[in-house]
């Protein structure tokens, strides 16, 4: 393939409810979409970067900037364009994994569409539907939390993840266990809000039989996680710390995690995400698919990834209506706690033009 054009498109999608984490409150998603045109097909990519660099160093304006200034011009030079070429061509540029992932996803989509192959099959999927969990934000009160969790369980979600931070951890977990019982698959996510000095406090979560505690410590504190893991019965899962297959291998070797959250954007794309999966599988470490409050485009691709054999835990691949009143694709609808893995070529879905137009705040063509 040859790259003939790239469009960067910004969309603003209001969330159905504010989503509060230890790093801030999101009320809407400002999403960067990448549409690549090649001589053979068009492809769509979605960038996971949030508006502010509070979850990771990347932010949406920065991602757009590095794509227009460096990544798209470098890729336009390549004469045998395919998804593997994206990683190769962009390798000299440090970091900016979410921006790289968005461009790779778009090229991968175009390549697979041109060949009539679905992403799930390309990645090695072994399922045509995946069980879904839901990530529940920090609430103003325990009562509000119980109502929210109850609603998600009624909707069929098979696993609940509670966002935690100092002051909102043991009590909400205890309340959810007391109300909904010990059979609910339950886990927590701290988004780096604790330090190793909190180890004894976090051990108070041990009696509740959580599946895991996600990223309790700073993303660079890999040894701290290894030490914490020794002091907790709850398995430690890493999110922010895992930025590549190499960092996953290192974290596992150091004993810093018993479980890994795989987000394609955080590790630089779906191809590296598969390599993270492979490394974890080789070490017997279970993985699950994280999310960045994606639109239907990113969701479609995440479902393909979540269908790989090592994804033995339900992911944050929730239905469209958990996030948005109107998605930009045909909505993903939960059925028996599962979402179907798209089976059409490429990522398997496309934006609905009118819905996309409604939420678009800016479009920009990058010269190729
Ligand atoms: O830490 O997993 C996280 C959302 C935005 C940024 C970071 C995280 C999250 C979530 C929700 O937990 C994931 C989703 O449902 O898309
Ligand atoms: Mg997380």
Please, could you describe this protein's structure?
This protein folds into 2 domains: 3-116 and 352-366, Enolase-like, domain 1; 121-340, Enolase-like C-terminal domain (TIM Barrel), CATH 3.20.20. It starts with a strand and ends with a strand. The model has no long low-confidence stretch (mean pLDDT 98). The strands form 3 sheets. A 7-stranded parallel beta sheet has the order 5-6-7-8-9-10-11. A 4-stranded antiparallel beta sheet has the order 3-2-1-13. 36% of the residues lie in helices and 21% in strands. α2 (83-90) runs antiparallel to α3 and α9 runs parallel beside α10 (270-282). The protein is built from 13 helices and 13 strands. α7 links the parallel β7 and β8 (213-214). The protein is of the alpha/beta class. The relative contact order is 0.17. The radius of gyration is 20 Å and the shape is globular. It binds 2-succinylbenzoate (OSB) and magnesium ion. Magnesium ion (MG) binds at residues 189, 191, 214-215, 239, 261, 290. Residues 189, 191, 214-215, 239, 261, 290 line the site of magnesium ion. Residues 142-235 form the Mandelate racemase/muconate lactonizing enzyme C-terminal domain. Its EC number is 4.2.1.113. Keywords: Lyase, Magnesium, Metal-binding. This is o-succinylbenzoate synthase.
By CATH, the topology of the largest domain is TIM Barrel
Average pLDDT level = 98
What ligands are attached or bound here?
2-succinylbenzoate, magnesium ion
What proportion strand?
A: 15-25%
DSSP, total strands: 13
Which regions have little confidence, pLDDT < 50, spanning 5+ residues?
A: none
Helical content (DSSP H or I, runs of 4+): 25-40%
């Amino acid at each position: 393939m040859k790259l003939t054009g790239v469009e960067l498109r910004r969309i603003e999608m209001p969330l159905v409810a504010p989503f509060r984490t230890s790093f801030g409150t999101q009320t809407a998603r400002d999403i960067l979409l990448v549409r690549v045109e090649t001589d053979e097909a068009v492809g769509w990519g979605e960038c996971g970067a949030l508006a502010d660099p509070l979850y990771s160093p990347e932010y949406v304006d920065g991602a757009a900037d590095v794509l227009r200034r460096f990544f798209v011009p470098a890729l336009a030079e390549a004469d045998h364009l395919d998804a593997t070429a994206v990683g190769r061509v962009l390798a000299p540029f440090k970091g900016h994994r979410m921006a790289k992932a968005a461009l790779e996803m778009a090229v991968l989509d175009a390549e697979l569409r041109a060949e009539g192959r679905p992403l799930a099959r390309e990645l090695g999927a072994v399922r045509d539907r995946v069980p879904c969990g839901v990530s529940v934000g920090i609430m103003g009160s325990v009562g509000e939390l119980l109502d929210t969790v109850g609603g998600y369980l009624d909707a069929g979600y098979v696993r609940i993840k509670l966002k935690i931070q100092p002051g909102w951890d043991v009590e909400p977990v205890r309340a959810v266990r007391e109300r909904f019982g010990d059979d609910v698959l339950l886990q927590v996510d701290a988004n780096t809000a604790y330090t190793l000095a909190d180890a004894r406090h976090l051990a108070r979560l041990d009696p509740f039989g959580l599946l895991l505690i996600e990223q309790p410590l700073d993303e660079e504190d890999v040894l701290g996680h290894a030490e914490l893991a020794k002091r907790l019965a709850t398995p430690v899962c890493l999110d922010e710390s895992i930025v590549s297959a190499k960092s996953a291998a290192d974290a596992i070797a150091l004993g810093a995690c018993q479980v890994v959250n795989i987000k394609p954007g955080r590790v630089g794309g779906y191809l590296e995400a598969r390599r993270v999966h492979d490394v974890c599988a080789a070490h017997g470490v279970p993985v699950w698919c994280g999310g960045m409050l994606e639109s239907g485009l990113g969701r479609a691709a995440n479902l393909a990834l979540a269908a790989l054999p090592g994804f033995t835990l339900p992911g944050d691949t929730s239905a469209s209506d958990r996030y948005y009143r109107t998605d930009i694709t045909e909505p993903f609808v939960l059925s028996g706690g599962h979402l179907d893995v798209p089976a059409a070529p490429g990522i398997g879905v496309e934006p609905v033009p009118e819905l996309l137009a409604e939420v678009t705040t800016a479009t920009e063509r990058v010269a190729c």
